[in-house]
Amino acid sequence: AFLRPNYHELVVESLPVETQIESMFERSCIEDTNDLPNGSIAQIRWIKPIEKRRADQRYAHAILSMNDRVTANKLILNQVIVGGKVLRVRKNKPDPRRCAKCNVFGHIAEQCKAEHDSCARCTGRHRMSICIATSDQMQCANCKVKGHGAASCECPFFLCKLKDKAQWEPERGYELFVTPDPETW
Fold it and tell me: What is the pTM of this model?
């Protein structure tokens, strides 16, 4: 069995793409600039892989994995300074997993057993990247309703899955990570 470290993940918004987040030196600079304890940042990673960025992209979001809740909450409340820029930070609340191949919730494409791709935009047997359906031809692969695709945050099926996730992860409803301090409740 593999045990995953218990990090407290934050989303750092609009981080300049030239930031060397892989560097221990950069991590140390972020800790120093923001008066964080040494080693409080376990890791930093880009949300979208570098190779999938647009050529002219200047900013991207990153995940900041913190070793403790109190320090994570400090950044949520005070924002973070990186390279002289003040950036918004929020608790990472990932959406329910949805397969990029069949669009069913609960697994990822790597684990998918579906024989064919199902377009998230029109439910056709093709990848969404080659879909030519117009906006009036959109149909959800999950709820089967016309007018939105499977990736829509307004899909009733998605909203139901989000509600289910909130029941299993009650801390999801809080802006901060819960600590003994009543201000975090």
Answer: 0.79
